[in-house]
């Protein structure tokens, strides 16, 4: 089991790394929110232990990014003990909330409980700006209006939304949507992107799918 600890207090981070490591877990540590986000994007974790007050990107913001992309269990471990903070953390999608100072025995019990819940469910709904995708109902809306997509267009949009803000290469998109490798000179991805844009971008002033020259495509709200 791999656990990511996002904690800016070095002493606490080392304590958690050592304790959880001795309890049989593989532990990686990020000392700020941006490094935590990078590790989350690069690897897969079974549990994330997250502080609230972090430099660069605070815990609230990082949790929102996580929940747009991943169902990974998140345990807040923070000195913020107000009831409204606990409520906010749980409403944003945290699975548990533990206040510092804490007992390691209690922390370990909560970690084991979260990990025993089994594989998390896939994220079922995605929203960026006024674009929404409901995975279970296979329904897409933009500005409240239903958008009709083919199966491949739906799969392509789902991929872009699930990796919001990440530049995806044409080869990666092809392998994920069409489950095969395409020659580098094929334009199948470009054609699919163009058709998808015609439905979810062209009729609206706010454009969400962007071309990154020489690299691929990204779905995000740009200033």
From TrEMBL:
DNA-binding region in chain numbering: 123-221
Keywords: DNA-binding, Phosphoprotein, Transcription, Transcription regulation, Two-component regulatory system
Ranges for domain OmpR/PhoB-type: 123-221
Record-listed 4-aspartylphosphate modification sites: 51
GO CC terms in record: cytosol; protein-DNA complex
Pfam family, one: Trans_reg_C
Domain of life of the native organism: Bacteria
Domain Response regulatory: from-to ranges: 2-115
BP terms from Gene Ontology: regulation of DNA-templated transcription
CDD domains hit by this protein: REC_OmpR_CusR-like, trans_reg_C
PROSITE patterns per record: OMPR_PHOB, RESPONSE_REGULATORY
Protein name listed in UniProt: Heavy metal response regulator
Organism: Geopseudomonas sagittaria
Lineage: Bacteria, Pseudomonadati, Pseudomonadota, Gammaproteobacteria, Pseudomonadales
């Amino acid at each position: 089991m791999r656990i990511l600890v996002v904690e800016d207090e070095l002493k606490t981070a080392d304590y958690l790394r050592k304790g959880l490591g001795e309890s049989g877990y593989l532990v990686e540590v990020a000392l700020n929110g941006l490094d935590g986000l990078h590790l989350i994007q690069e690897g897969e974790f079974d549990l994330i232990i997250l502080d609230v007050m972090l430099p660069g990107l605070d815990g609230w913001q990082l949790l929102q990014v996580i929940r747009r992309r991943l169902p990974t269990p998140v345990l807040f471990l923070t000195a913020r003990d107000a009831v409204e903070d606990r409520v906010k953390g749980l409403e944003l999608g945290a699975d548990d909330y533990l206040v510092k100072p804490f007992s390691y025995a209690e922390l370990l019990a909560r970690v084991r409980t979260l990990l025993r819940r089994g594989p998390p469910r896939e994220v079922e709904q995605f929203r960026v700006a006024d674009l929404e995708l409901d995975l279970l109902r296979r329904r897409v809306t933009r500005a409240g209006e239903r958008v009709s997509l083919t199966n491949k267009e739906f799969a392509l949009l789902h991929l872009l939304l699930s990796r919001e803000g990440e530049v995806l290469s044409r080869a990666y998109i092809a392998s994920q949507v069409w489950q095969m490798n395409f020659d580098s000179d094929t334009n199948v991805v470009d054609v699919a992107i163009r058709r998808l844009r015609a439905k979810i971008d062209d009729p609206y002033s706010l454009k969400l799918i962007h071309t990154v020259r020489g690299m691929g495509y990204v779905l995000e709200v740009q200033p």
